[in-house]
Amino acid sequence: MRVFAALVRQGMKVMLAYQWENYMGLVGNFAFLLLFSALWSALLRGDPEAQARMLSYVFIGQLLQNWTFTPTWELAGRFRMGDVALELAKPLSLPVRVLGDFLGRNIVRVLRALPAFAAVGFLMGIRLPDWPQFGFFLLSAGLAWVINASLYVGITLISLWTTYFDQAHQILDFLEGVFSGFYVPLWYMPPALAAIATYTPFPGMFFTPAAIFSGGLQGAEALSALAVQALWAGGSLLILYGIWLGGVRKMTVMGG
Amino acid sequence: MEDVMITVENLRKEFKILRRRPGFLGTLRSLLSPEYEVRTAVDGISFTIRRGELVGYIGPNGAGKSTTIKILTGIMVPTSGRVVVDGLVPYERRVENARRIGVVFGQRTQLWWDLPTIDSFELLRHIYRIPAGVYKQNLELFTDLLGLGEFLNTPVRQLSLGQRMRADLAAALLHNPRLVYLDEPTIGLDVVAKERIRRFIKEINRERGVTIILTTHDMQDIEKLCERMILIDHGRVVYDGPVEEVKRRFGQHRILVVDLEGAPEEVSVEGAEVIRRENGRVWLRFNRDEISAAQLIHRVGQRYNIVDLTLEEPEIEGIIARIYEEGV
Amino acid sequence: MLHALRCYLLLVGAQARAQMQYRFNFFAQVFSMIATYMGQFIALSWLTDRFGSISGWKLEEVILFYALAILAWGFAVSLFFHLVSFEDQIREGLFDRALVRPLNPFVQLLAGQSPIAGTGQLVFSIAAFLWATGRAGVVWTPLKLLYLLGVAVGSALILGAALVTVSALGFFTRRTYTFYWSLVFPARQLVHYPLNIYSQVVQWLLTVGLPFAFINYYPAHVLLDRAADLPWPLLAYLTPLVGVVAFAAAYGLWCLGLRSYVGAGS
Ligand SMILES: Nc1ncnc2c1ncn2[C@@H]1O[C@H](COP(=O)(O)OP(=O)(O)OP(=O)(O)O)[C@@H](O)[C@H]1O
Ligand SMILES: [Mg+2]
What we know:
The complex is a heterotrimer of chains A (256), B (328) and C (266). Chain A is mainly α. Chain A contains 11 helices and no strands. Chain A has one domain. In chain A, 78% of the residues lie in helices and 0% in strands. In chain B, strands 5-6-7-3-8-9 form a 6-stranded mixed β-sheet, sandwiched between helices. In chain B, strands 11-12-10-13 form a 4-stranded antiparallel β-sheet, covered by helices on one side. In chain B, helix 7 links the parallel strand 6 and strand 7. In chain B, helix 5 (132-146) runs antiparallel to helix 6 (161-173). Chain B starts with a strand and ends with a helix. By secondary structure, chain C is an all-alpha fold. Chain C is built from 12 helices and no strands. Chain C starts with a helix and ends with a helix. Chains A and C meet through helix 2 and helix 8 of A and helix 2 and helix 9 of C. Magnesium ion is lined by residues 65-66 of chain B. Residues 15, 17, 39, 41, 59, 61-67 of chain B line the site of adenosine-5'-triphosphate.
């Protein structure tokens, strides 16, 4: 645990070294916020309650983008350069190091984004959830981080086995795009699909925390969503670990 | 003056490096009131180079060689000073200047990485608008002199470093430039490859009268190729003149190596400095203006029993190394 | 001018030959495009299923906006996408090579990629476009085909101008990826939806500032025979002109950037 904390601190330092480039990312966030808020305002005209909820949903969604940002292409780049053997030689296993690094960077990203988001949220009149609900949100956001980071790092590690990991990555992107609620929250999906999606890991990557924040998931509903999310967080870690072990075996036995 | 190729007067180049401040407020402040650190890479350099000269432009890492070459090729505008190359100010008339010069940056190739070598030459033929006759003649000549034949159809990325450098040299000369800049053309090459490249450079300079500016860290390149060298350090010229003269000017020190009988505990001789000891063998450095070799041998002989001795002449390599380390 | 064009074609041909040496995975590219756009198509169809239309536009019509944007992007990617990675060229000193050759460095930069790199995108774009115009019930006339040609060229130039601007900013800041991902990419997404969902200010910005509205929103009105609905129908016919002006402006900025790059030193 102490080692992991050191990794996180290292990631934070790396992130702090970059300067204005990071604030550029906020421009992109607010462009998407503009897009989604305009879209939902248009679609939900005449239902102020739903409108307010969706505004809150897309608002927190963009902040979550900073939190679950996983630049796995850096990792893939290092693999392409042939540094895999080097990675295997290090004492601490690669997934642990990568997760620590990502967590550190994501913490800095969010802290950095907070003032601007607070200002924009105030201007948009975003409602904050009350305390217990906010606690649920924080918990859910934490679990969302675990699912995102594990699945994406796992998918990248598939490159240890096959050259088709790009495609695997795209399939994950696709499924996440459709079922995580990034474009359309589960409320507005066709009900049958939404019922299925509930039990996949994808809503846990985005929808669950955003819905809890916006008040769309409350009480028992929120608790059951959190339970599914927690199960998937564990599952994703297992998936990551499995892919890593398999990859290491393949690398060491077959020589890459 | 018709026979002057390059005039450089009081050339200066300062790099401004933005000093970054940490944190969000720091970034904001850096945006509003940027604070710069100035690094002077070239600090008032002047020289002239005549047509047909082959000049070694040398100095330690970071001395400002590449920066000077970038200014001369028109890639960079100097902070102040005057530069005229073949009647043009290169950074004002970059394209026109580019037509007349050839450049080899030894550290990276000018060729198209994924294409057969010959394809790069073909592309350059069109870019430089080389007449068909000239192109054919040059290609044949260079293929012959540099032995390009064996790899003309091999993609550049598959060439060995020596082959690539030869191809790069040919590419830089296809359009009959009057002036060629070679920035470390022998970097990383083995002895044989270096020798081949040196012969070619010499040949081109002598037969075609091409003016050549050569930067290198290999003093053999300089000794074998150049009559004149310009030595710079910290962006200033510390020596400009014949290569031989350097030895006379800075090479007053010679070394006497003696094997002494019985390996005495302590060795000291007036007029010389012990710079190294290995059992009975002692290296003595002395200044030939103060004491002659014969005198020194005599003095050593008076105090110790000499078994054997050799006298080491100053090597340019060593001289330059000492100038780098200790200054002029 | 002629020399520059000749050299451009020769250099692009050389790039094509170079890229042929690597196993060019056409299908991987098409797959990637399908994966990228299919998610958005699906999301869009859910929305229109549920809400009927978006600010008065039916699903088929919104899909036409998409398709026009994708078509333009297909062309732009084929010709200009490598400009996004210009920062690598600057950092590794590769751009300096262009400066010691007697050919406009802009031409040399543009010629740094061959269209075959984007063939997958382009084929996908055209297929998607044909499918979408079929669904939207676009009635084709020779005049409309000619119009489409103008729109395609103009749109590719508008997107090209954006990418040239990204590379020009690279001269000043030594960064290019960040400008693409945080400015151009989101702006492209904005015009995937009908412009009239946005406030007047945003509509103006996408018309005058970053004129992506000319890529799909205005032209779609003509293809759907609804140009009369526009506050100013002429807007629908300006795409080629806007493309040329935007590209010229971007080139101007690029030249300024080059001046600053050569002045500051690389
Ligand atoms: N773009 C730049 N920005 C800031 N400083 C620079 C830049 N280019 C060069 N310098 C600095 O200018 C000085 C001279 O560099 P230059 O590359 O000319 O040295 P050099 O003599 O070619 O050295 P070497 O033998 O290592 O090639 C160095 O201190 C270097 O750090
Ligand atoms: Mg150098």
